[in-house]
Each structure stands twice: as C-alpha cells, then as structure tokens.
Amino acid sequence: MNAMIDAAVRNPGNVMEYYVIQVAIIQHKMKSYKDEVLTVQNWLSLGLPAPRVDYRIDLQKRLAKAQELVVKSEGRDSSEYHEEWKRLVEVAKVNKVARTSDSSVSTGCSKAHLERGNRLGSSGYQLAGGRSRASLLVPNNEDLKASSFVAVDFETANKSAVSACQIAMVLVSEGKVVDRYSTYLKPPSDYDYFEFSHLHGIGVKEVLHAPTWSDVSAVISQFVGGAPVWAHNSSFDSRVWRGLDEYYGTRTLPSRFYCSYQTSKKIIPGLENYRLPTVLRRCDPTYHLNHHRADSDAEACARIVCALQRLA
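Request: output the structure for the sequence above.
Response:
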C-alpha cells in the first residue's frame, strides 16, 4: 500500500484505486473498520485525481459504511454516516447508468438526468443538489465576507490522517489577527512514526511531552466557536480533523470548513499555480512565510482570506 501511494504521489498517472478498494474489502471482512476508515481517508487526503469515477465513488461509499459501523460500535448516533452511505449508493447507481449510456446501450434515462448525476467535482462525483464537493469548499458570499473567521493548519507525522503532530489556528476579526493558538500534538502510539520531519522539522523529541488531541479538543472547540474555518487545501486539513475526531471520539469538526486554495482559483484566475506560497505572494507579499510550520501556514491562509474578502 505504501509503495503504491509513493508511486501515485510521484506520478498521478500511477493512481490505481482498484487496489485501494481491495485493501478496504479485506479490512472490512476482518471487521477492522477503524483501519478501513484510516486506509480510505489517508488515500483520499492525498488529493490525487480519480481516473475512474466508479472507483472513487466506491471508496467514498465504503468509507461512509465503515464510519457508520465504527460509530455504532461505540454506542453513538450513526445516522449521519448511514444517510451518507445511502446517498452514495444512489450516486453509484446513476454513475453506472451513465457509463452504460456511454457504451451506446439504451437506458431510458434522459441525458439531462445523467448529466445531473454524473458531473464531476474534484473528488470525482457530484453531491445532491447539484453541487460538487469542490464547490462546497468555496463559501457563499455571506461566509466569505464574515467579519470573523479562523484559519487553521495541521502538520502530520506521516501519511495517516490521525498522525497530526502540530495544529495552529489564527482568529481574525474585522481584517485583523486578534488571537492565535498553536501546539504540538502527540500522535497515537500506532501512528507516531515520522516520515515528514524533513518538511516541517518536527520529530519524536518535539512531541514527547505534547498533549494528545483529546487533551486539547475542548480548547480548540472554544477557540473556533461558531466562526467559519479556512485552510489552504482544506480537503487535507478537514480529513485530518475528521480522522482525529473519529479516533478519539470527539466532536469538534466545524460544519463550515472552506478552502482558500479553491476560492483563490475562483477569485484570482490566471496564477501559475495555487500553492500557498504562490497565492500568498499575490495576496500579501510582505508576509514572510515559513512554509510547513503550522503557525506560519495558518497565518498565511488568514492573510489570503482577508485579501479574497477585499477582492470579492
């Protein structure tokens, strides 16, 4: 699995989600539902393209079912995940009809219905109501213009979504940073091996006496309050946040979680790319970025959002 991930990261043409599905199937048959959740979440958090839409939908469907079973086993309300699984079952059916139609087989479905059911967002399928998952990462005008918001950044020890080793948050009000929160995090013992120290400089020494996610989750919830939350490439940060909540049984993931990467593409077209340093240079060239340090990345994201608010 790790070799396949490394190959896919080096070259997206090597993405082979069929084999990720097979790993998930094996874990499901072994009733290792938490491992299944982590396998699928970790894969999706890489943000790789979906060469086959049906495989991507299958992975999302398996993730929802595994999450349902994990939550149910812990005696918590699993209806949210069950509804997501049912919705994805319907999405899979529509996609199957569309693929059959593309093969020149009569289906009796209208072209408009197939287009509604099979338009692709960045995650490989469209959500109910006609919005792609990518579009959900871009706020409506009210949330974009919110006078207060939080920017967040996670750093992880390795490819696991629950291996977060640092979180930083910045609270902005009326265009100014009014509060900051940053801490190292101690990953769970099964996920505390470091693969990305060369990027962020964090290793075993830094997290040895750091709090766990459960130690700081209440502080984090209080810091966010009801404000919309932003991250640059929030698909990654929200999956890390969701993975930590799943692992520790907490409920802290914000309901409004937006992406400055996707929003920048919409409001500032024509950049050579939309990586954090590139967008920051366009939005606030005076800020010195220490990239892959969570506190610096979070503040850079906050400054980008402030610029997007002015430009929108």
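Confidence is low (pLDDT under 50) at residues 102-132.
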